[in-house]
Each structure stands twice: as C-alpha cells, then as structure tokens.
C-alpha cells in the first residue's frame, strides 16, 4: 500500500464529505479513491468513514486518525521539496585557472543539460588540491602525472611571432659564441605548469641541451609570463588551446612529448563522483583536450 497516497485520498474525501468530490479534488478516479481509503482502513485496522448512499462522515476512529494522516502528507511534501532543492544545489568544482571563460560557460551549460548544477571555482594546482583535501569543494580537477590520467593535454611552446617551422627544439635556445653577451631566450613556465611532471621535465631537458638554468623560468602569474613573451622572443610553455586564446603561435617541443595530466578528485559531495562520467568530454574541452587527443585511462 502507498501510505502517502492513501492518506491524501483520506484527507480529500473527509474534506469534501464525498468520495466523488474528494476524488475530483485529489485528481484521481472515484474508484481509486475508494480503493485507497479501503486499503488505509485495512492497514489501520478500523473504519475511518461511515458510509451512506449519498455522503460519508468521519467515524470517531477516523477523527483520531485525521491529524496523523495530515502529518504524513505534510512530511512527504516537505521531503519532496527538500529533495528538489538538494538536486538543484550546485556542486562546487575547482578548475584550472587557465580554463577560458567561454569553455567554463559551456561546461556549466552541459552540466545543466545533465541535471548537474556546477559552481565553478578557478584556482591554481596547489590550491585545488588543498580545497578538495579540506572538503571546501565538492570536487576538483587535480594536476597529476599524465600516465594514467583521465585527461591529457599536450604542452608545447608558443611565441608572439610565427617560428616558421613545425616544431621548436629547445636546443636552438642555446646561445652561440657570438651571442654570449646577448640576452638569452627563455621558456616561461606558468603557474598551472609549476608541477613536477611539467616543470622538472622542461628543466631537465634544458640542462641536457646546454641551456643556462635561468632560461627555464617560472612566471609569478600567467599574465606576467605572457607579457614577457609579447615583448621579447621568449616562449611560453602552454597548450595549443591556450596559445590560440592568447593569440600566440604554438609549436610542439622537438625533443619532448610533454603533457599535462588531470584527474577528478571528490571532496565533500558524494554525488560529485558522477561529474566526471557525465561531463567527461566537456571537461576535456575545457582543459584544452582536442578531439581525438589527450584521452587517458578508460
């Protein structure tokens, strides 16, 4: 027996003094109202109505049960309302600060299509890890080593001027004898890539091909790093999508297949674990994964 439905029928009939009128108020057929009230009486073990050919009236037992029926219906309605609110309560997702505004807007829109409401918080890699560890967000896209990552994003170098070749070899940044006194070109590492699996790989490669330590530099911010690139012949380590957004010319690194790796970590919201499955493709686009590229583990 559906106790809530039976109590609704009981309240509707008692309020109208008629099964016909009560059924109309409850928007059910009269026969359905009769069956539900009969089931309630059987469940409670007593008659709630004294029936006549034209009307029904509450029995003493029915009068005693009426407040309880109203309480059952009120609690069910309150529960349904809270459930609806809970479904609408957004999941706070910490995302890389390098994600573009349009990409984030498309991610949020895709979430709504899947009945997932996202509150997106842009942050750096260290801050994202801290936020999810402290359960201040429902989930976070963490920077991880590309091996086994859910999302992989290629990282190359970008310049203000077209390099004129299909790839940039880091070895070409090594100063020759005639240019030892000139300013050496640098590769700028932005805060999003100030993680071991990106920064250390670039540093090791620079040392291996003979660059000076200062030629692989970490910018205080993305804005600071890009400003250096725009006013010099320096290079920015970044993804193709990011270079396109910044109006820079991107090329892969000739000596190194460098990638960012991302994984979804769940914090304070159990339902946040569904975000990665429902929105995997859109999250990838937001991170800079191009179609047919960058897919990690299945």
TrEMBL record:
<dbReference type="GO" id="GO:0003700">
    <property type="term" value="F:DNA-binding transcription factor activity"/>
</dbReference>
<dbReference type="InterPro" id="IPR000847">
    <property type="entry name" value="LysR_HTH_N"/>
</dbReference>
<feature type="domain" description="HTH lysR-type">
    <location>
        <begin position="1"/>
        <end position="59"/>
    </location>
</feature>
<dbReference type="InterPro" id="IPR050950">
    <property type="entry name" value="HTH-type_LysR_regulators"/>
</dbReference>
<dbReference type="InterPro" id="IPR036388">
    <property type="entry name" value="WH-like_DNA-bd_sf"/>
</dbReference>
<dbReference type="GO" id="GO:0005829">
    <property type="term" value="C:cytosol"/>
</dbReference>
<dbReference type="Pfam" id="PF00126">
    <property type="entry name" value="HTH_1"/>
</dbReference>
<protein>
    <submittedName>
        <fullName>LysR family transcriptional regulator</fullName>
    </submittedName>
</protein>
<dbReference type="InterPro" id="IPR036390">
    <property type="entry name" value="WH_DNA-bd_sf"/>
</dbReference>
